[in-house]
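Let us work through a complete example step by step.
Step 1: write down the sequence.
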Amino acid sequence: MLEKIVTKMEIPNYFLVEERIKTFKNWPFSDKNKCNVRNMAEAGFYSVATCKDDADAAKCFLCGKELDGWEASDDPWAEHKSHAAKCAFVQIGKKEDDLLLSEMLSIAKQYKINEAKRIAEVAKEQIDEKAKLVKRRCLIRK
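Step 2: predict the structure and record it as tokens.
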């Protein structure tokens, strides 16, 4: 049922814990450690690593908080809460399987709000860059 709701809402794959797990290709810690792939994904993180030098870089699918410098004994939920206490996912504080429908919808709503803000910010940056080019052309022509 959850997957049907997510699919209909067109929420990207990282909304689901199993999809976040798939991103941790070279995670430096094993399942024996507290900071393992499953715990990271259940706390809302997906891997944003690009090479071995940043193998422990992870980002929250909802708030966008990016963290690295993880240690094997770190608790992903505690670290997420420590660095992004206002994240809606952290505030609910439940694993995906334990979420009520109303909580899932609340998270989906916040995701869409955050996504709209990110898109608006990118658009603003693009407009600002184009405005700079136009100003330069105007100055050159004078």
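Step 3: interpret the result. The helical segments are 2-9, 17-22, 37-42, 76-83, 88-92, 101-141.
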